Amino acid sequence: MSRPTGHPGYSETLPGLEESADVARQLVRVALAAWQLEDLTDTGVLLVTELVANAVKHTNSRHIRVVVSRPSEAWVRIGVSDRSRTMPEIRKSNGDSLPTGGRGLVLVDALADRWGTDLRWWGKHVWGELEIKELEGS
Fold it and tell me: What is this structure's pTM?
């Protein structure tokens, strides 16, 4: 498939298990290194970790799909697809802190420059985008 940026996308279908976060983190590292965007690695790794954790914890999906792409020259998109059509919601704090659980989307919101959910007939794709502050070759 031809991509508008000319950059290949990276994706992998993984078991819907917490251990899949290790492979997802490696996929993000490989994609960002291939695009010479290593400065986004720490944030990208944290972002995909939270997205995988949310998909595993809040769905009954036997498999998830991790996708790392460049929708434009200025953005990297990291997303996780699952079979649940239940839309994610950010849990608001009632006081000083959130309970131990429920922080995933709060972290996604803090890490990503923008994020969202695409509802599909088979489930959903939750993604976060990181802005590339300095374009390649600059």
Answer: 0.87
